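Q: I'm writing up a methods section and want to include an example of the input and output format. Could you take the sequence below and give the corresponding predicted structure tokens, formatted cleanly so I can copy it straight into the document?
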Amino acid sequence: MPPSGSASVATATIRGIEAVPVVVEVSASGGIPGLSIVGMPDSAILEARSRVRCAMRACGFTIPRLHITINLAPGEMKKSGTGFDLPIAVAILVATGQIDPTVTRDHLFVGELALDGTVNAVRGVVAYAITARNEGLGLVTSSETFLPTSYGETNLGITALAQLREGLSGLRRLRAQPSEPGRGHERRNIEKLDYADVVDQELTKRALVIAAAGGHGLLMIGPPGAGKTMLAKRLPTILPPLGEEAAAEAMLVHSVAGQPIEDLLSGRRPFRAPHHSVSVGGLVGGGRPVMPGEISLAHRGVLFLDELPEFQTNVLQALRQPIEEHEVRIVRVDGSYAFPCDFQLVAAANPCPCGHFGDPDKACTCPESKVLAYQARMGGPLVDRIDVVTDVPRPETSKVIKGGEGMSSEEMRAQVLSAREFRSWRMSREGEVSRGEVGRARLEPQAQAFFESYASRFCLGGRAIVRISRVARTVADTHEHELVDRDDLAEALSFRSRSAM
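A: Here is the clean output for your methods example:
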């Protein structure tokens, strides 16, 4: 087949959580042999010249003694990533007549080339699949990756560049499920977590049921070793599984960040627990290229902040806007990026540096000034946005030694699902406002008078009143009350006020 001299291949580049379509254009002409890449490539794309040469030679293709110009269109947009290796190689092979040009029809190519010609996986395969589907194309990428069939039935997996000698006929459809046994083993270990292992914390478990039923933020305060981390890690075991739409949103974020998506496919909600040394960029997103942070990786799941006062103040304050809007916006010179972050915040903290402030059995050794300074590090505005605050006392020694069992995850999950089902039934009857709007709870007259008196006495602001009302409504749902009574409201208020704080 005579060289055509030019070729174009469809591909895409990751920008935020989207894959933006890009066309790789190749022109082969006389002159000094070499490869030049234009179109605002980053260093990873420029390094593709060496990888492509070695891969073509290893697969038995000819490296032409021509000057090859590679243009990434549109030229005004910054491109990044190693996923351009495969489309660049395919375009060169088509331009030099070494493979059939029909290979490039109706397909979008993405993949990184190893020096032996093997096609390796790249991050963001879900985003690439969505873009390919929107453009009416099939995706051709590494056979090491997998995609649910809902992302398209024409997605093909390629193992090595040499397979393209026979066109696309030798390629198989991408797997719909992972085949690595190790990750399944990790999932089984996670599923073994059960609240029955946590002894003598039934009041805190009640707070967790309320938080899970209503999607409320939760702050646990107690001495070291009381079980705060154990309680938080088991929260996903009582949450309902991810729906199809929510799972798709979470998979997109995880795929772009290069995180595994196997647990999300099984419906398990994400659980993220960043260390207290995390930076603002690591928590809310950023970097070059801009990547989603921990709050976006916790989208539709749980974000657990252990040792809350140990986090930097500016890091905690950066959470205020995302908690309210369920979206984080990052502005850079090349434009703005938006990442979803509809997460459930769970935090744990000691009441003071030594951890025993307010403990009836062990005296606190911290000066009052240090206690106040330690508690102030959590930030009033952030704590004001957390709906449920509960004390986690040190469990009784005899119960821990005997090894008894408390309320199990199965029992707690049944309460959560029952409350959510009742809320759905109630909202269908009442036409109540959605979660994103200002919540309002229908109160019995006695409960309303009590709430007005309490709010006036403690000078509650509008946000506090709305959040207490939402928690009270969730408590009433757990009891299947159509109207919030005084007992429901009193229980909600007990998770708001803390004498120790």
